[in-house]
UniProtKB/TrEMBL annotation, chain A:
Pfam families: ETF. It is found in: Mitochondrion matrix. This is Electron transfer flavoprotein subunit beta. GO terms for biological process: amino acid catabolic process; fatty acid beta-oxidation using acyl-CoA dehydrogenase. InterPro entries: ETF_a/b_N, ETF_b, ETF_beta_N, Rossmann-like_a/b/a_fold. One of its GO terms (cellular component) is mitochondrial matrix. Residues 23-215 form the Electron transfer flavoprotein alpha/beta-subunit N-terminal domain. Heterodimer of an alpha and a beta subunit. Heterodimer composed of ETFA and ETFB. Identified in a complex that contains ETFA, ETFB and ETFRF1. Interacts with ACADM. Heterodimeric electron transfer flavoprotein that accepts electrons from several mitochondrial dehydrogenases, including acyl-CoA dehydrogenases, glutaryl-CoA and sarcosine dehydrogenase. It transfers the electrons to the main mitochondrial respiratory chain via ETF-ubiquinone oxidoreductase. Required for normal mitochondrial fatty acid oxidation and normal amino acid metabolism. ETFB binds an AMP molecule that probably has a purely structural role. The electron transfer flavoprotein serves as a specific electron acceptor for several dehydrogenases, including five acyl-CoA dehydrogenases, glutaryl-CoA and sarcosine dehydrogenase. It transfers the electrons to the main mitochondrial respiratory chain via ETF-ubiquinone oxidoreductase (ETF dehydrogenase).
TrEMBL record, chain B:
It comes from Dracunculus medinensis. Its cofactor is FAD. Heterodimer of an alpha and a beta subunit. It comes from the Eukaryota. The keyword Signal does not apply. This is Electron transfer flavoprotein subunit alpha. Keywords: Electron transport, FAD, Flavoprotein, Mitochondrion, Transport.
Amino acid sequence: MRALVGVKRVIDYAVKIRVKPDKTGVIHENVQNSMNPFDEIALEEAVRLKEKNVIKDIVAVSLGPPKAQEILRTALAKGADRAIHVEVDDKIAEKIEPLNVAKVIAKIVQNEKIDVVFVGKQAIDDDSNQTAQILASLLDWPQALFASKVEPEGDTFKVTREIDGGHDTIRVKLPAVISTDLRLNEPRYATLPNIMKAKKKPLEKKTPSDYGVEIIPQTEILEVTDPPVRQAGVFVDDVQMLIAKLKEKGVLKQ
Amino acid sequence: MIIYGRFASSLVLAEHGDGKLNMVTLNAVTAASKLGDVSVLVTGADMKSIAQQLTKVEHVKRVIMAEDEKLKVQLPELVTNVVLASQKRFGFSSIIAGSSTFGRGIIPRVAAKLDVSPISDITFIHSENTFSRPIYAGSAICKVKSLASVKLITVRGTAFSPANIGGGSGAIEIAPSADLDFAKTEFLSQDVSNSGRPDLQTAKIVVSGGRGVGSSENFKLIYDLAHKLNGGVGASRAAVDAGYAPNDLQVGQTGKIVAPELYIAVGISGAIQHLAGMKDSKTIVAINKDPDAPIFQVADFGLKADLFQAIPELIKALE
């Protein structure tokens, strides 16, 4: 079985982002970047399935600016066999939408005869939560979203999904797209020897036009602003004072 | 009410479970009413009573009903085909659902078939093609203009008031037939935790516990306080990861987004990802023994105290 894992380079989750004064976006300069945490989980799952001999070959793919190569090297160090970097310049990278990404991946899936695609359920920068669904739709494949457990059974995957109010279990027939939730696994760290080895693994460089895809955004960013700031609150001395304050504010009944 | 464009019309995908309409549908109807005449699509096995209920929802002009045994569990792969068939017949200018697991599963799938870029989790409608949505876990708000020929949208339920049930006079129509033969996905089972508590996302009061609660046994304190206040129960990711509370109680960027009248954060430090899920609450109370916990920066009322003393005291005081 051949797996494709989609990985995105995003501002590290621990960074407190800052909005540009001209409101055109957020500040990317001199900010720590890393692999989108959900994609790390997607990759880890593919690697575990490779260790169980379910998957033979893992292709890590990223559509992004030149620096996206760094996270592809990380993916290789964590166990991907090869990587494809579909490169766009920084300006275009900021405008990429899940529809564009899915179109490129759909082409790669066909070229590489992929059986299963793992992607994170959402990227923590645009918070879109769309790529897996769009890709599955373009390919007419089943989608198993928000996976918290993935069990291969013959030419199917049994997937437990995180849903509102609990979880459910579905079976998808391969080929399929699986999007991964936080609870699926604990991603491993790349060890130094593996980081060294990853430098020798193949990393192909492509452009969207190699796949006949033109990046045409359908969504124009008009303005990026700070969220409304909450007014500073007060400390209360004890429980009695807390209750009094809440009653005063009308939040608790008198 | 503002209606943009003369022939603008919007389709809302109704969400339901256990024979009941999911309330986020009513928030979506309000959002849809700002974009044109509202139709609602309801899919499932036995939909008559929910369809009837939907006809009475304000703003709703038409209820499209697709009944089929195959739609019983509303697999996104099948519902997508019903939405596409309806779109083909009626040519809606926007298609809208709540940004729940249901809506997120279907809207992008439909969008791909129509070759349009969907807009996720909108919190404000400026005009028929301009919306605001949070990015970076709510650390920034992005105003976007969609150039898509059809707007495929999920809406953040807490950002739109629910449409009233009553006053509407929609008519029920049978949905155009759609291909329901997608045999590549099979629904096996569902386990929805029935806590007996008000639904987390619609509760007026939410009490959430974090890592500070210390154990799943101690989490009973959180339930007890929520019970006393007739509120919903939430949890931070730390509490969920530690096994103190089930996953579906998680509030935050990757869990539920809530905006109740009163949010009480107990033993929660207040990481960005948690704040993303609750910082639009009307009043926030933080109870934490660490005075430097970031949660106090968003709290209206902060109580620096040991939760194991403060919560029982609070419960007692509310008797």
